[in-house]
From TrEMBL:
Pfam families found in the cross-reference section: UPRTase
UniProt source species: Lactococcus muris
Transmembrane segments: none
Lineage, uppermost ranks: Bacteria, Bacillati, Bacillota, Bacilli, Lactobacillales
Keyword Iron-sulfur annotated: no
Record's protein name: Uracil phosphoribosyltransferase
Superkingdom to which the source organism belongs: Bacteria
Length: 209
């Protein structure tokens, strides 16, 4: 079974509590998603491989360590996932960015895929699949299906707020995928929204409602 982790760092929890507030402006919401994305990247990148490198400090020669040049790709699920990309790129600027466009049909809550644009060597890359919200799990499952269809298997799913229903669904569909969330909320309401959640992340991020 996959690794499922709630990242409880105090900075993440503090910023997430501000993000949830109904009176937060679009500008603040965008800045907070960016910052939390960066803080989540710190945790998710914890096991990236290192290699020895010989360097000279002003004082002495030493064997230091650097990232082993593992190829990375950040893949946001549009639209809301876009909000997390820049924060992660601040820490890992050489990462490539792929996009998976998807929206939930409001009646059926079934995800509809409308765009897949990925680096050509996606199968060789460690992928951070990002979306602030994991509700029924339908969108994440379809995005992972889409990546696996293209032979990408090294995937970590990074999300801010998750419902237990979504975690269970993703773990059942894709037991090999590690999941990192900033919060595990209580339940989904009758409209498929996470409770207490933060509302519609895409609309809050882009000011579309
Ligand atoms: O787990 P699920 O039940 O599939 O729901 C989660 C999805 O819903 C939201 O996207 P939405 O459909 O609102 O699209 P948007 O990002 O364009 O607003 C969210 O960003 C996830 O992608
Ligand atoms: O609560 C939810 C559920 C799905 N998508 C969102 O943006 N918010
Ligand atoms: Mg939305």
């Amino acid at each position: 079974m996959s690794n499922f982790q709630v990242v409880k760092h105090p900075l993440i929890q503090h910023k997430l509590s501000i993000l949830r507030r109904a009176d937060v402006s679009t500008k603040e919401f965008r800045e907070l998603v960016d910052e939390i994305g960066m803080l989540m990247a710190y945790e998710v990148s914890r096991d990236l491989p290192l290699q020895d490198v010989e360097i000279d400090t002003p004082v002495a020669h030493m064997t230091a360590q650097e990232l082993a040049g593992k190829k990375l790709a950040i893949v946001p699920i549009l639209r809301a996932g876009i909000g997390m990309v820049d924060g992660i790129l601040k820490l890992i600027p050489a990462a490539r960015v792929g996009h998976i466009g998807m929206y939930r049909d409001e009646e059926t809550l079934t995800p509809v895929e409308y765009l897949v644009k990925l680096p050509t060597d996606i199968a060789e890359r460690q992928i951070f699949l990002v979306d602030p919200m994991l509700a029924t799990g339908g969108s994440a499952i379809l995005a992972i299906d889409s990546l696996k269809k293209r032979n990408a298997n090294n995937i970590k799913f990074v999300c801010l707020v998750a419902a237990p229903e979504g975690i269970k669904a993703v773990q059942e569909a894709h037991p090999d995928i590690d999941i990192y969330v900033a919060a595990l909320d209580d339940h989904l309401n009758e409209h498929g929204y996470i409770v207490p959640g933060l509302g519609d992340a895409g609309d809050r991020l882009f000011g579309t409602k």
